[in-house]
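Quick one:
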Amino acid sequence: MNYYYPQDGNFGSYNLELYFDDILYANGTTIQWGTCEKGENLRNLTIVNTGDINLTVSITTTDLPLEWILEWNANNTLLKPSYEVKGCINLTIPQTENTWHAWAFSLNGNA
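Output:
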């Protein structure tokens, strides 16, 4: 006796969309902070999971000056497919700063 069971499946897709102050930014696009104050600079950051796999979303920085602080209150949120998370992103610039430095942040989605 032999039972035969063909197998079928597919791979899930990973995809996130980032909205900074309600403007969609594609991967690799420079984020426009506009005029910033020394101290706190609050903006809206919305992430949408447009894939079909649950992702934990977070933000990490690259080359952020040592005394500058970037915080997103929705860091490490589990985001299901077709759901979004809205949060406040806060860039704190020291009162002693006089130069806008070259830096970046990355949006991470971990399954």
